[in-house]
Hints:
Elements: E1 10-14, E2 30-35, E3 44-49, E4 52-61, E5 64-68, E6 77-79, E7 84-94
Antiparallel strand pairs: 1-2, 2-7, 3-4, 3-7, 4-5, 5-6
Amino acid sequence: PTVWSQDAKAFILNVRGDSMTDASIDNGDMVLLKAQNTAENGDIVAVVHGNSVVLKRLRTLGESILLISENKNYEPIQVEPDQINIIGKAIGNFKIND
């Protein structure tokens, strides 16, 4: 589960899935994120999208945003800014399964 609070300066996300493997973020890893609601192009971010939190690389595309997996088997997700909520920027990765 994600350890997160509105007042947190940082939190940990337990990664499930293989969408970020080409960024050396694997299933079971623990990613340390700086709690923030903004990000720069190219940052790896935790984003609330729908009913879940996803970890993706952020790219702006005009008025739209692309949430890009670091795995060629997954297509980018194109969203409008009001469809997501950025909750953090990745600043570290802990390999739990190695």
